Amino acid sequence: MQDERKLIVIGDGGHSSVIQDLISSSRGYSILAILDDRYSSRFIHSGIFFGPIDELAAVIQKGTKLVIAIGSNDTRKNMVQRIGMPADLYATIIHPSAFVSKKALLDNGTVVMPNAVINAGAVIGAHTIINSGSIVEHDCSLAPYVHVCPGSTLTGAVSVGEGTQISAGATLVPGISIGEWSVIAAGAVVTKSVPAFRMAAGCPAKIIKRIGSRERIL
């Protein structure tokens, strides 16, 4: 298609494979290059340029957009800082099966996976992942670098701090806040606010430990 915009994908691990499928299913973008430091030299495969991340300056073109295809919140933030590109060069990519309200605001670099829902008044920060089948209800506010994992639900007016992971199948009740770089464990039902740098688990969820700055729980 003549109106397709070229994308450079940063990262080529498991999460990137999902992003690449999402791009192929979405309208308006095609992949120009995939950059990852696992590649020590440049090569072309199926018309796509592959190489280390330091090749970015060599392959970026006028009108090209970027996406950071890295699942780890802290690594994703570090990569954005490393490559130092302007915020408006990052694409926001939404799978066709996702529903995103016209009254929601999504910042640059956000990725919305299949069957996800983002409802009216939600504000999604830069480089956030809204993963498959997750729900971000009305008036939620998510800071940058958040990961809302598959099947999780943020009910109305939930606030989530930078870098926090809402793990698969978790539910957050209305009006609570989760501090930065915290982890909500899989399947947790969170009925009270959680401070920064904490892990909460269970039903109802309880804080089970303090975690280090940007610690990621797999």
TrEMBL record:
Residue sites binding substrate per the record: G71
InterPro entries assigned: AcTrfase_PglD-like, Hexapep, PglD_N, Trans_hexapeptide_repeat, Trimer_LpxA-like_sf
Catalytic site: H138 (proton acceptor)
UniProt-annotated site: Increases basicity of active site His, residues: D139
Binding site for acetyl-CoA: H147
Domain of life of the native organism: Bacteria
Residue span(s) of domain PglD N-terminal: 6-83
NCBIfam families: NeuD_NnaD (TIGR03570)
PANTHER family assigned: ACETYLTRANSFERASE, UDP-N-ACETYLBACILLOSAMINE N-ACETYLTRANSFERASE
Protein name per Swiss-Prot or TrEMBL: PglD N-terminal domain-containing protein
Organism for this UniProt entry: Jeotgalibacillus campisalis
Lineage, highest ranks first: Bacteria, Bacillati, Bacillota, Bacilli, Bacillales
